[in-house]
Amino acid sequence: MKHWLFALLLVSLGLLIMGLGQVPQMREWRIDGILVRDNGTLRSLGLTAEDMESLIYRIDEIPGFECRPNPFNDLHTIIGLNGNGDKPRGWLRSHISRGWTNVIGDLLKVEVRVYDKPASEYETYHTYRWGTQVLPKLGSFSGLPLGEECFTYGQTTIWFRQGRVVSVVSLLLQGRSPEQTDSLFAEALSWGIEYCILQHPKKLGMAKKPMTVLAGNQPVAQGKAVTLAGVTVAPISSLSSAKVSLKTERDKKEWAVTASLNGRRVKVKAFSWEMETEKGKVKLERPVFPYGGELIVPLRQVAEALGIRVQQKGETIALLP
Amino acid sequence: MLVGPDSYPLRWGETEPPSADLVPLPPGLDTSRTRPTSPGCFKVGTGGFWLAYAVEDWVEEGSLTVVIWDEGTGEMLGTIFTRFGVYVVLDEPKPPMEPAWVSVLNISCQWARGESTPEGAAALLTQKLWENGQYNGGYGAYTRYFRDASGEPIDNQERFYLRAFLEDPWFPWGQCNDFADFLVCLIASTGVPIDRVRRTHQLLLTDATNFRTNWITPAGQTPTKAEWTYHQFAFTDHVWDGSLVLGEYGGFVKGMNFDDYKSRLVEVILRCDWQLAPPAGWFVPEVSAVAADQMPPWPWAN
User: Fold this and answer.
1) Do B205 and A129 touch (CB under 8 A)?
2) pLDDT at position A48, please?
3) Do B221 and A131 touch (CB under 8 A)?
4) What local confidence, expressed as pLDDT, does residue A147 receive?
5) CA angle A315, A55, A276 (to 5 degrees)
6) Mutation test of the interface with chain B: which of A67, A75, A133, choosing the one with the most B Cβ atoms within 10 A?
7) Whether A73 contacts chain B with CB within 8 A
């Protein structure tokens, strides 16, 4: 009996030693133009590839653009999980980088990086003043305060930081010089990413509280309404509870929603800074962008254009038809 | 390889001349389909061997068949068959591409196809990089700088994250550092000894631009006049620059005299004139196989 127990003990000890001796390996896989690499053998941010994809636009979410794999490397998206996670200390970061192109050949690239700590410990305007060929310029193209800090390069690249996250949106134009609409398009994409950061369930935007929207005293768009630099944005569908009818037109070139109420009509388009009304085009305080299959709009402006009264008290907004 | 009573492993530290492993072919082995290489027969356990043979320019893929034969019984024990890519280059790849990366050879041998001189290969690779590249407007991408023990930047070093650069969804995409370093890798991989890069200004905390260019066309962009804090290019005693052309299409910088290059690139010095950067006038970029997810945050490598 004693021998049997001793043998069992030896086997258990052997299995334990084998288990302890196994060092987890870096993992890498490719799916349809997406390369995913995970270095989290010692440390992890607890973010999955899906978590990273939720911080960026889907491959079919930007009208007029599509994801085509690079002819040299067959990739349109790189996801790096737990960079430096194979070392016991130092910076820890996950990132996603995705490229789109349109029929003209313009190239659009969006990169998002998530750190283990507030991103200001790793990336600031100051650090980017080292060794870059062109001068970064503080602020956004529109002059609005995007994220906690933002700066631009040239007329079509914009960087911002929010909580643990840094984003860079870059547009390269083929055969034409950049115009203000190109700058504002790149910035509209960035505002959408800030919304994605604030919506992320793992509190990457450092726990910003959502707004409560009431329509007929009933809460709507729960958790989906947030303020972006002081302006509340929410899914346009939150207006349906205020008896607004919505019509979506979406194809490869355009994503538009027309909202109607009592003869009034408002049309908004993805990544536009304007809405179309019967009285003409009206400039929006924040751009329209897609999230979760629908368009996010500056709530007060769109609601008021439809004749809905809007009352705000603290963190609550009431839509009063 | 032969397996037989005469086979033996080399002892540690022993060496043999290359021909020592070669023995007569066993009788009956069909070697009629092994062109263009000469069939050889090697003893087992000698720790590997080199096969060297000439190929025509058009050959892109080779194959190797290894027949394992028991010399004692005359029995064939098995065969191993493998295919491999053939890269025809001008000479043995040079640093920093020594050994050359297959992923770089895939591109350099395609872009410089048909060139038979070092100058011709370097010129065509410079042109092809510009034609295929996307200059990002001049902000940090796949290079990182070094600091000394006191935290001051070191001018004569730079780490180029080649693997990350190759995997970019917009490859070839980056600022001038990335283009200059990648051009060095392309050219060096074909056996041409162009391994150096130069900057127009030393590394500083940027607070103003140093010069404005004449009309140039950066890779993938429309003609422009740019204001830069510095510029980086491949450099021997001449300049090779795949990130831009002078003026419009056709003004390639392929082995251009340094003074001509400067006078044609610079419209006006806005602050500091060009200087030797690094002080030695050049450095060889350090090439890294680290992927983008493992690259440290901008701007430091250490």
Assistant:
1) yes
2) 96
3) no
4) 95
5) 65
6) A133
7) yes
**pLDDT for B231-245, tens place per residue?**
999 998 899 999 999
Residues B127 and B197 in one domain: yes
Say whether residue B268 is in contact with chain A using an 8 A CB cutoff. no
Query: For residue A12, what pLDDT is reported?
Result: 55
Q: In chain A, which residue's Cα lies nearest the Cα of B164? A: A78
B24 — pLDDT class (breaks 50, 70, 90): low
B113 and B78, same domain (yes or no): no
Q: What does the pLDDT look like over A177-222, one tens digit per residue?
A: 889 999 999 999 999 999 999 998 887 765 667 788 888 788 888 8
Q: Which amino acid is at B222?
A: T
Whether residues B223 and B254 fall in one domain: yes
CATH class for the domain made up of A212-320 = alpha beta
ipTM above 0.90 for this complex: no
Question: Residue A315: pLDDT above 60?
Answer: yes
Inter-chain contact B293–A83, Cβ cutoff 8 Å?
yes
Residue A224 has pLDDT above 70, yes or no: yes
Number of folded domains that form chain B? 2
Instruction: Render pLDDT for B139-184 as a digit per residue (tens, 0 to 9).
Output: 999 999 999 999 888 888 999 999 999 999 999 999 999 999 999 9
Q: Residue A204, by phi and psi: left (phi above 0), alpha (psi -120 to 50) or beta?
A: alpha
B180 plus B119 within the same structural domain? yes
Candidates B131, B170, B179, B197: best to mutate against A (most CBs of A within 10 A) is B170
A153 vs B169: CB contact, 8 Å cut-off?
no
pTM of the model: 0.86
Mean pLDDT of A13-28: 60
What range defines the domain where residue B35 resides? 1-86
Taking CB atoms and an 8 Å limit, are A70 and B171 in contact across chains?
Answer: yes
Question: Between chains, do B293 and A136 touch, taking CB under 8 Å as contact?
Answer: no
Mean pLDDT of B22-37: 55
A42 interfacial to chain B (CB closer than 8 Å): no
* B69 and B217 both lie in a single domain: no
CB contact under 8 A, B138 and A134: yes
- Residue intervals of chain A classified under CATH 3.30.457.10 are 212-320
Q: Which B residues in the span 128-147 are in contact with A, Cβ-Cβ below 8 Å? A: 134, 136-140, 145
**Which pLDDT score is estimated for B6?**
40
Examine the domain organization and report whether B277 and B241 are in the same domain. Answer: yes
- Judged by a CB distance cut-off of 8 A, whether residue A39 touches chain B is yes
